[in-house]
Specification:
Length: 213
């Protein structure tokens, strides 16, 4: 296994939506989960859990929940809206691959918060501000093992569910009442190549000392 530098990991960890079906070694999955737990968290409370799903039947059930949510909110929502801009349309057209093919990922990691999120923006910012650094650690660690990933949030407890008829992710995984699914991260060996993701120039979003412009 070739070592991937921190610089390379940060600058080439793009969304890998097309994954090979090859199984991922258990030791690699344990490594990336441990890396996730090295992230900072509000009050160092570490209110996170990770459900690593490799069983095909469970992956298919999670994929069905995500597919229904994605068809409602992406296919029939964002992409059907004539006011959706060209760049957003490009992004969401790519996202439809996960909507229709999530079950092809050999692993789905479900990131969870071990506490219900109250209707308090300040408290929620600390909770979500704790789980997402952990998930970023996980994705960077996966890159270090040449594993691709992408961050998905539809079908989780904090995205609109509407009148979707399929079982929710929390029901499929039998999450206890105090644990809530926040994100789904498919993981596997990428079918595509690594490369720098498209981002706005850092100069366009940076201000020195005071806000300018």
């Amino acid at each position: 296994m070739n070592d991937v530098s921190l610089h390379e990991a940060i600058f080439t960890t793009r969304a890998m939506r097309h994954l090979k079906p090859d199984p991922v070694p258990r030791e690699d999955l344990e490594y990336i989960i441990e890396a996730a737990t090295m992230a900072p968290s509000a009050g160092n409370l570490q209110l996170w859990s990770f459900v690593v799903v490799t069983e095909q039947k469970l992956r298919e059930q999670i994929a069905a929940a995500y597919r229904e949510a994605g068809r409602v909110y992406i296919r029939d929502g964002v992409l059907a809206d004539p006011n959706t801009g060209a760049n957003q349309r490009r992004v969401y057209n790519k996202a439809m691959h996960n909507v229709e093919h999530l079950d092809e990922a050999p692993v789905i990691v479900v990131g969870c918060l071990n506490v219900p999120c109250p209707d308090d923006a300040a408290v929620n910012s600390g909770l979500f501000g704790s789980i997402y650094p952990a998930l970023q650690n996980l994705m960077l660690a996966a890159r270090g093992r040449e594993l691709g990933s992408t961050l998905l949030t539809l079908g989780t407890d904090y995205c609109p569910a509407g009148e979707l008829e399929t079982d929710s992710v929390r029901k499929i995984l039998r999450l206890p009442d105090h644990v809530h699914a926040v994100a789904l991260i498919p993981i596997g060996y990428p079918a595509g190549s690594w490369g720098r993701p498209w981002r706005k120039s850092w100069q366009d979003c940076t201000h020195w000392e005071r806000w300018s412009g």
